Amino acid sequence: MAKTILIVDDSSSLRLVVKLALNRAGYDVLEAGDGKEGLAQLEKAGKVHLIVSDVNMPIMDGIAFVTEVKKHPRHKFTPVVMLTTEGQDAKKEQGKAAGAKAWIVKPFNPPQLLDAVSKLILP
């Protein structure tokens, strides 16, 4: 059975690039345009094996989203990769404190993302 990955990003073109790379690698993909939508997707979804989230989004940003995800017993151990234009150490520390396991700065190349995903995704 394919592993399911949730992409949370307000850029539909970026979600498409990430989705294509993940689909080609054999993953099922769910999408959300912001953190609030991401939480709704997690509620509806069965098992989500990994989350890829942007930091800067309207309604609920990535850090707040990850903080909320980690409060939920079902998703507490779901690995989160932040995929963002933010490269400052302070932001990375906020992400880590919220529960993010990896930080990839845009622009990114799909092999870099797939490498991080394959290392973090739970069996």
From TrEMBL:
UniProt keywords (A-Z) are: Phosphoprotein
Xref: InterPro entries: Bact_response_regulator, CheY-like_superfamily, Sig_transdc_resp-reg_receiver
Q: Which PANTHER family match?
A: CHEMOTAXIS TWO-COMPONENT RESPONSE REGULATOR, STRESS RESPONSE REGULATOR PROTEIN 1
Domain Response regulatory: start-end pairs: 4-121
Xref: SUPFAM superfamilies: CheY-like (SSF52172)
Q: PROSITE patterns, per this entry?
A: RESPONSE_REGULATORY
**Can you name this protein?**
Response regulator
Q: Which residues carry this modification: 4-aspartylphosphate?
A: D54
